[in-house]
Write a structure and sequence with these properties.
The protein is built from ten helices and 13 strands. The chain is α/β, with parallel strands linked by helices.
Length: 290
């Protein structure tokens, strides 16, 4: 069942074997033996991809629940303790991870010496199931109903630029004024160049245009400090520059509600002790906001 679950998660016998520390032939035989025992095909195999059958999808849901519970029981029996043990695979946005996660994870590891963490920082949206992550930190509203989230901290997204830019080009007074400015957008936003605002109690999307975009918030922040244009960033990236006066915020009266930071995990009936304690630790660490 473990072999089947890994192949289903990765879509590859080779990758599943790598994660389990086994030969590909061993993983393949175990899945074939499982299919023979159940007298049904769980996977459709091609030269390029392995995909679940309809029966495989149904079976995987129950198998994953069982394996999650079994892992928890085995950990507690093996170590005769309720303390968290094992490895946690964590994904987080690049800028947030660099600025804030180091101290939070360090204090967690100091508290729980039997846990190890592998962190992966990227601004792309990772697939927790297919890529084998236990936990992800995500910014903003969540779109996947299959995932569970816990709020870690409040965060704002603000429209900002350097004092020099505003002195030369003027300040936008309302969202529609942004059409007259060089607006630098974060390309990983699903909405692209449209920035959300609240006007007259309703959420609207204001189209913007500009000559510079990036898939990293820190780059946009530095470009804005240099006077390149107006940008739209979370305060965990732009906050320090705003506090120091290098950037100034406009359109505060039109900001959308708090743009929260969440811990996100798979929709499982029971969380392992290691993941649950890390979520609780991060929540406590960031409870005062950013």
């Amino acid at each position: 069942m473990k072999a089947f679950a890994q192949v289903a998660a990765t879509g590859s016998f080779a990758e599943a074997a790598k994660r389990m520390g086994l030969a590909v032939s061993v993983v393949s035989k175990r899945v074939k033996d499982l299919e023979a025992y159940l007298n049904t095909r769980l996977l459709n195999r091609t030269t390029r991809k392995v995909r679940l059958t309809d029966t495989g999808y149904s079976y995987l849901e129950y198998v994953q629940k069982f394996l999650d519970e079994l892992e928890e029981v085995e950990e507690n029996i093996r170590h005769r303790t309720q303390k968290p043990v094992g490895e946690i695979k964590l994904a987080a946005p690049l800028s947030f991870g660099v600025k804030y996660l180091g101290p939070a994870l360090s204090s967690y590891l100091a508290r729980y010496p039997d846990v190890s963490i592998k962190s992966f920082l990227s601004d792309r949206s990772v697939d927790l199931v297919e890529e084998g992550y236990d936990l992800s930190v995500r910014i903003g509203q969540l779109k996947h109903a299959s995932l569970i989230s816990k709020k870690l901290a409040n965060c704002r997204r603000v429209v900002c630029a350097s004092p020099a830019y505003f002195k030369e080009h003027g300040r936008p007074k309302k969202p529609s004024d942004l059409t007259m400015h060089n607006c630098m957008s974060y390309t990983n936003l699903a909405e692209g160049r449209a920035w959300p605002f609240v006007v007259g109690g309703k959420k609207i999307w204001q189209s913007t245009s500009g000559r510079f975009d990036a898939d990293n918030g820190d780059m946009l922040c530095e470009a804005a400090i240099a006077g390149c244009g107006i940008t739209y960033l979370p305060t965990f990236i732009a906050g320090q520059a705003i506090s120091s006066g290098k950037l100034e915020v406009v359109l505060q009266n039109y900001e959308e509600p708090d743009f929260n930071i969440y811990a996100v995990y798979q929709n499982r009936r029971h969380l392992s002790t290691k993941v649950r304690t890390l979520i609780d630790h991060l929540s406590d660490h960031f409870k005062d906001g950013l």
